[in-house]
Amino acid sequence: MSALEMLRTASNGAAMLIEAHFPHAAPGVKRRDLRPIGSSLWLRWPEFGFGLSPADEMGAKELRLMDWVPWRGARTERAWPERFMAGTAWP
Asked: Cα–Cα distance between 47 and 3 in angstroms, integer?
């Protein structure tokens, strides 16, 4: 985390996108928890925390619709998309 913070500072505050892996859903739970696992440091450090979760509506699987789900409260207000959809296949 300190190395990432040094990079952010040296870059004059450039945005970073950090990938995290989430635990499996508990039995009987419809949506799994999208917070990163491990040190609580990763829960409090980012300005924003979001996860992608498959949308739950008719035809969502075929369209590959994903809900953009916040897992922490935002520190500042921003306009974020509610969903993402897969684009065309890459060559």
From this structure: 17
> Where in the chain are the domains?
48-91
Strand 50-54: give its sheet, edge to edge: 50-54, 65-70, 83-85
Q: Taking a C-beta distance cutoff of 8 angstroms, is the pair 51, 37 a contact?
A: no
As given in the structure block, the two tokens for residue 50 are 């979001």
The predicted structure's pLDDT at residue 91:
65
Query: How are beta strands 83-85 and 65-70 bridged, if at all?
Result: antiparallel
Residue 11 CA to residue 23 CA, distance in Å, equals: 32
Token output for 84: 């993402």
In whole angstroms, how large is the CA radius of gyration of the chain?
16
CA 34 to chain CA mean position, Å = 7
Tens digit of each residue's pLDDT (9 = 90 or more) over 30-84? 777 766 666 676 666 667 788 888 898 899 888 889 998 887 777 788 888 889 8
